[in-house]
Amino acid sequence: MVQQVTSGIKISVETSFEGTFYKNYKVHFAFGYKITIENQSKDSVQLNSRHWRILDALNNEEIIEGEGVIGKKPILRPGETYTYNSGTLLTSPFGAMNGFYNMTNLNKASKFKVYVPSFKLSAPFALN
What we know:
Mean pLDDT: 94
Number of helices: 0
Largest sheet: 5 strands, antiparallel
């Protein structure tokens, strides 16, 4: 598990390898990740959007941006947590992801970024 705190918001990430399959005549490697967002600040915050940078073993980069996470824009009061599961596909058995969430401090009506630490995606059979 990797963790990082930005502006009182703690991000924890756990990853898993979900398997391989063929799509468009190519082998793809499926990875899952579970993210827990914990509000350690004294203000209520809302997650508005996400930005992901996904790299595979060949340094191919994919940028993903979108509203909320898994269709939701959670509000977290002080001390609350929000956990969700998602996933990604790579064309290699290992890679990495990092990114950030655009959030709003609801008490101060100010916007800020919360960084997601870089986390590795790796199929167990690809490691020595």
